[in-house]
Sequence to fold (1227 residues):
Amino acid sequence: MKFEHVVCPLCGCLCDDLELIVERNEVISTKNACALSRSMFLNLNADLAKPLIEGKETGIEACVDKAIGIISKADYPLVYGLASTESNAQRKAVELAELLGGAIDSTSSICHGPTVLGVQMMGEVTCTLGTIMNQADLVVFWGSNPVDAHPRHLTRYSLTPRGLFTPRGRKGRRMIVVDVRETKSSKLADRFIQLKPGTDFEALSSLRALIKGEKIDIDPELKELAEEMKSCEFGALLFGQGLTMSNGKNMNVNAALALVRDLNQHTKFAILPMRGHYNVTGADMVFTWQTGYPFAIDFSLGYPRYGPGEFSVVDLLSRKEVDVALIIASDPVSSLPAQASSYLSEIDTIVIDPNRSMTSEIARVVIPTARAGISAEGTAYRMDGVPIRLKKVLKSPYPSDYEVLCKIVNGVIDGRSKDS
Amino acid sequence: MLMGEGIKLRLQKEFNVPVDAPCIRPDLFKTLGNEKIKNLDLHVGNKVKGLKDLFEVEGEFSDEITIDGDLSNFKGIGHKMESGKITIRGTVGMHTGAEMSGGKIIIEGNASDWLGAELQGGMIRVKGNAGNLVGAGYRGSKVGMRGGMIIVEGGVGNEVGALMRRGTIAVGNAGDFTGCFATGGSILVWGDTGERTGAFMSRGTIVLYHEPKLLPTFKYGCAYNPVFLRMLLRLLSNWVDVDPQYITGNYKRYSGDITELGKGEILIWVG
Amino acid sequence: MEDLKIVNGIVYDPLNGIDGERLDIHVSGGKIAERAKAQRVIDVKGMVVMPGGVDIHSHIAGPKINMGRRLRPENHRTAPVPKTDVTRAGVGGGLSSTFVTGYRYAAMGYTTVMEPAVPPLMARHAHEELNDIPMVDKGCYVLMGNNEYIISHIHELNKVENYVKWLLNAAKGYAIKAVNPCGSDNWKWGENVHGLGEKGVKFDATPKEMITTLSEVNKRLKLPHPLHLHTIDLGVPGNYETTLETLEMLKGKRAHLTHLQFNCYGGSSWKDLSSEAGGIAEKVNDSKITVDSGQVIFGDVTTMTADAPWQYRLYRLSGNKWVNNDVEVECGGGIVPYRYRKKNSVNATQWAIGLELLLMIEDPWRVYLSTDNPNGGSFTSYPYIIKLLMDKKFRKEELSTLHQNASSTSLPDIDREYTLGEIATITRGATAKSLGLKNKGHLGVGADADIAIYPLKEDIAKMFSKASYVIKDGDLVVGKGKIISEKYGKTFMLDFKEKVEPDPDVREFFKYYTVDIENYPVEMAYLPRYEAIKCG
Ligand code: SF4
Ligand SMILES: [Zn+2]
Fold:
């Protein structure tokens, strides 16, 4: 069976033009998918999670009941992950955290959390990816490497496509890469500016001073960059974790946001974060409309409080403040610093995930689910905030993340009404 | 009202779950008898407990509180307090003295992040170290500290005095981005400072006693001995040892951040 | 759902010509009934009974308000809203979270709210948020005034008609919205338009052509609500001339000019800005146009519009943080926090203009109460505005605390005081009528049983801020201003009777989108409870 216009639930590009051939509930071929995507689709059945309690296989109902029992008794539980699931699951997860008086955080806090802090400080002059396609004659990738991390970004959105006012495609666009090392992306660039590691902030500040017309003594390459940025017709600065996670973090983002904002006194310029997981943007969105805050939220007082550095996953775990962790569609053991992730094996950790992971290996309870965008429908938000509906192409024996979370929420409520 | 000897709180057992304790403030305690103090609510994780469940409480009707124990996971002690005194004989958690407008907090151990955040007035002194964002403005705010004084004898983390508008902060050592986004006020660092001091500042003064690495967006002006600084140092010598040469010596003046208004200054002591 | 009988109330139901009569209201099966078996009788002796409020213009859901929420943690921090046994937690400053938005509307007796500015590409997002707003029925208007497909087919009316119809259906929207037509598109190149006849930077359509085209299409499609227009030159000193021209151009036509206060300015700069509300009101009086006021409320607000060049201007004026988002092919928008100050001459004048419009436009069926939430202020200020309208003395007192320029408007000379019946008109009867929602805004037999019951109080603002009871679709949901049970309303969409297929040109045009046309239309899964209103 052939599926068209399939949305790829992998990276923040959220490409929606895939074609899949499915036979006997397996994807046997893909069209338009990048290598990352293809290998995901062709290996969907590898490493599937099984319902486990204390490492022993059991029924999914038993796992859900066990999870309800554990989480209901927690003094301060953490709900974490959610970047690789759809928005209904994210909505239910917030409800659960609120119900439990726990904390909730998404993987935002370990990738583009600094971006959010930056935006909250400076604002953000941005656009959708199609605006870049239609208008941009200059694209600057700063601390981002689309060729490896977002393989189709350059061809679908930012470099080669011909848009409404960019009929010449690649030929009508300048590509500049600013990074601390050569990458596959920098090799494609018309100009590559290599920074000393940890000096992004100085470079961005200097550019701002130059744009303002101040005279400062810096690298002539940066001076040329400032001129190029000022004189383009429509520019876009696309930044990644090279900026957000290097020395200076949110301050780097502040400087980049301010630079782009200031450029709009001379021309049109926009800035976009290259968000990684396909629906990490959705987690920000859902958390924000339900609580006012995009990540690192605490409900212990019965209302939402915001605390990056306080209620964010790394901080809660390394300070050993939570006593139960519910991990949804994420693998913190492989992605968090050891000092934080090691604590997950000291406490009751529950994992809801379609796949086995390092985290499910150490978890007390593992609840397998139908993978969003493969075996469950739902909404995902592209890195620029465009919402797209995920498709269901395969059947799964398991319920979706959303369905499992509904059961847990209902179970906690039932348990309470029995108690009282 | 009868004033007692002061109120003593002794922590009974230690644990990790965070405790929200903004009710521990002297201007509230001085209106309460011992029984009422014991029954004040604290949020311990998602549970509500009485102060007496965590602390042994002695004394009543006093605006002086002394607390013994490791309070690393206690947040918001002295939050919004207007008067009175808290002495913490140990280490304390986040948001201590945040938004306070008067009175005094003495911390004999270390303090954590957001110490004296958005401080309006009063004084906080820390014998040990403090965390990030001392005296800073909360996320999204335009203005941080608006008055009062924070003295940390040890070191502090990053972004001390972020968004500061008025008041004084004096610290032993400081991390990166000291005084970022400041629009006024004074920050003094006796020891080492990290990088990017004064980033985005538009007004205000940062005084450094060790040669820092400055941003390219600060410009050298002149060397001189500022009058206001002499007065400020004399005032500070009430609580900290100020080297007389600091008062008489000269300072190099850099102005910036030129990416912003550029009317902030970094003064570096040259002896 | 049990049947209800509400007895002894003083009823204001302007659509049915009832102006303060003591009547009993029967509710059965979620509707107003001739007679109900009435298992439950609610005695509301001495209270005022009105249809549930209908807000025609309030930014409550979608990418822009959510970006505003994300931008302003400092605003939420001081306004936490704890969960209760029946309600969800959230924040309730000027940018309330979705749940709190629903609760606050319901507590004031509002039961229908329209989100007025949705970029069609982001419509799915708006619907997701609408689905998380409890207590009220809702719908959304679709941004079209800067749509590059329409701009580039501006002279092909049939094509535009087909596209608009397809787009309304794709976005599951309820009305056509135009914001600074052609001006926001120019902003994609850093420009704006000045005057109705100016051509765009990249296209040669003019604001005038866009407005007339959309209003013509609106008529042809027989949409229930007229073209909802945020016109050009908003917020610019001296813009009243453009506004008069716009009104002249639309004379005899159906159109709704929104938050008109921002378009009634005389003067040539921020320094000598003055009110021209009188002339505008006169012009509105002799047209068919409807308007809403766009009252400003003193204090901190977050401005957010699809008028991107205006937001840039406001950023430059205030120096506050600024968000801009240019949406491919369709529109743009911006967000800037702002503080309206009593002692600021411009802000004080703006405050007076909003009231002048409400008081000088004679026909309450054509001028509606709004703050353009959250732009002029929060919707929670409606009771305060109602008090200003009903109480001349209070108006004068407020005026005396403002910058003197507010007193050089005609406001000090206006003696008009709204009656309760007129308040019911501008907050429910007339708005429901303008929206073409036949089952809303009145208490006639067959209407949705959305009922607000207010305690009769000396202080009008108190009376309207906490309804004694609110009934939503026949269920008692609010008691003494508190939510007693949570309930989710429906979403209004349009019923075009036949299937809407896009013109091949539209398919072709989708190469300028980064989303496939097959993935573009909002699926019915996003409208779990809906009512499709027939066009025509
Ligand atoms: S670029 Fe990203 S979204 Fe597109 S196909 Fe590759 S992995 Fe999937
Ligand atoms: Zn509006």
Remarks:
- The CA atoms of residues 160 and 170 of chain A lie 4 Å apart.
- The radius of gyration of chain A is 22 Å.
- Chain A has a mean pLDDT of 97.
